[in-house]
Specification:
The protein is an alpha/beta fold. It is built from 14 helices and 15 strands. The chain starts with 12 loop residues before the first strand and ends with a strand.
Length: 402
């Protein structure tokens, strides 16, 4: 990969732009850590969306978090329909310019024309000497460029690290990070144990996320298969199931609970606790199984063995990222179809809702997922029993034929 490289002053003022959801921001945490380790005296600010603004609160790596509701300006029609929204940007422009940043790092692909225009205006408004980012041939407004070879040519976390490296920032610690307080852990234990002692709780605790967030519900595996998976794992190992997700996924949880055939204890935690409480709760469970979503990345950050189901999305770009940490174990289960992926492919977004039949998920049965989940549970039990790490690689992909 071609990278232009510059070196910043020790007291540099750096702005990092990552206006995305929780999962995407998590994948930027190794790059943010690299900046802080390399420039411990620098001022490092972060520009994010309201959805992810609270995720990194309290993290010593970041000096200041700036929030921009980019969703008001996602499409030209929104500006034409509500031109007054542009007035909301005036205080931001002044704040960015007055901060006198030496470098601004853009952790986004330059995929869509309107997005490229927005990023150009945003970066130039800072007046920064160095404008750093990925270049897929449209990065003419950047003056420090990192080659963008397309979605999946590198993992998104590695792309973020490459942008940080273009200003000389590196790290050996590539773990995903969510800063948590003791209060987050207290609330998580309260949700999990419901007043019982830890020894009174049935193990293993398997957290499942059958949702996917609102950006693309097409990423969801069939609810009935989550129910069947819960039954299968309960028959094998006992324990209990926690269904995680936002309040909008409560009905989905009810559907799964109503479909289960075994006596597996299952609870819905839909909408209960903040995203940080959920991150803390994942540290106490034995296994996570879910769709491609932010919660899968939270599970990896928590060090919980994670099995993630991928269909239309490019798993090479957005799969669980362990950063090579020995206590992070994650696996992707997917079909091996010639049409995959149809979302985030090459330099294009592709089909956010997939094709009409969505064979990549519709034809993925329970057995391949259950097989990997059993393997993860056995490995986790072995780790606890003899305090040694299992022999599997940190990131495994299990591609199966339909």
């Amino acid at each position: 990969m071609r990278k232009q490289a510059v070196t910043l002053s020790p007291q540099a003022r750096i702005l990092v732009i990552k206006m995305a959801g929780i999962g995407d921001l998590l994948l930027a945490t190794p790059a943010l850590r690299a900046l802080r380790e390399t420039y411990p005296q620098a001022r490092i600010d972060l520009l994010v969306t309201p959805d992810s603004a609270g995720l990194l609160d309290g993290w010593e790596v970041i000096d200041h978090i700036i929030v921009l509701d980019k969703y008001l300006f996602d499409y030209p029609q929104q500006i034409l329909k509500n031109p007054r929204n542009l007035l909301r940007l005036t205080p931001l422009w002044h704040a960015l310019h007055d901060a006198r940043y030496d470098a601004v790092l853009l952790l986004h692909h330059l995929t869509l024309p309107f997005g490229r225009m927005k990023y150009q205006v945003l970066l130039r408004s800072t007046g920064a000497k160095y404008r750093v980012g990925l270049d897929n041939g449209h990065g003419w407004f950047l003056n420090v460029r990192v080659d963008d070879d397309g979605f999946g040519a590198m993992h998104e976390a590695e792309y973020n690290l490459a942008v940080a490296e273009a200003v000389g920032a590196t790290t050996d610690d590539k773990r995903l990070t969510v800063p948590l307080s003791e209060e987050h852990h207290r609330q998580a234990r309260q949700l999990l144990y419901e007043g019982k002692l830890p020894a009174e709780i049935a193990r293993p605790i398997i957290a499942m996320h059958p949702g996917s967030g609102g950006y693309s519900t097409a990423r969801r595996w069939e609810p009935a298969r989550f129910a069947q998976l819960a039954d299968t794992l309960f028959q094998d190992a006992g324990g209990q199931v926690l269904l995680l997700g936002g309040l909008e996924e409560a009905e989905l949880h009810q559907q799964i609970n109503g479909t289960m055939q075994s006596s597996v204890p299952a609870r819905s935690l839909a909408g209960k606790g903040s995203i940080k409480v959920t991150a803390a709760l994942l540290e106490y469970v034995d296994l996570f199984v879910g769709n491609d979503s932010a919660l899968a990345h939270l599970a990896v950050a928590a060090g919980t063995p994670a099995v993630t189901i991928y269909g239309l999305t490019n798993h090479k770009a957005w799969g669980p990222y362990t950063g090579g940490a020995p206590n992070r174990h994650a696996a992707v289960v997917r079909l091996d179809l010639p049409c995959m992926p149809c979302f985030y492919r090459g330099h294009e977004l592709g089909l956010r809702e997939g094709c009409a039949t969505r064979d990549c998920l519709a034809l993925l049965g329970v057995d391949p997922v259950a097989t990997v989940a059993r393997r993860m549970l056995r490995a986790a039990a072995g780790d606890k029993g003899n305090q040694t790490k299992h022999n599997e690689t940190n990131n495994d992909t299990y591609a199966t034929k339909p």
